């Protein structure tokens, strides 16, 4: 029973285990629910919390998919504008290829290459472990063997997990756009 309590999020806490429902944990938890990643390191520990989580997911997952779809459409609109600029008479196929390459390289750097460096530095992981976490997260597999901000021996800045959740959302949108392109 105590093991389940330690893994679960409870807004009240108790004398032996204070609440771990701070903004950063709640933001990260909400993000992992609506993105269906589900690392398994955070879960509601009360029946009321579990019921709320079911309804939150019932509405949150489709809303997140709609949000990612709209974000992808917005990014796609910028790509179409860029494509129209590139396809004007006199511009070579090389320029088109270069524009797509810049998009892919920039996204790869922002979402797959640099984040593992940050995670390696903050978490003390190797670059390979950071990349593994990055890929497992953005592929929405979410095994839970590596999760950011969970080492009790480290002091994390309060917004670390929130920024990670934001990175996840934009990384998912970028990947969706890559698949669309």
TrEMBL record:
InterPro entries: 2pore_dom_K_chnl (IPR003280), K_chnl_dom (IPR013099). It is found in: Membrane. One of its GO terms (molecular function) is outward rectifier potassium channel activity. Residues 17-73, 106-180 form the Potassium channel domain. One of its GO terms (biological process) is stabilization of membrane potential. One of its GO terms (cellular component) is plasma membrane. It holds the Pfam family Ion_trans_2. The chain crosses the membrane at residues 47-68, 94-118, 130-148, 160-179. It is a multi-pass membrane protein. Keywords: Ion channel, Ion transport, Membrane, Potassium, Transmembrane, Transmembrane helix, Transport. Belongs to the two pore domain potassium channel (TC 1.A.1.8) family. PANTHER family: POTASSIUM CHANNEL SUBFAMILY K MEMBER 16, POTASSIUM CHANNEL, SUBFAMILY K. This is Potassium channel subfamily K member 16. It comes from Podiceps cristatus.
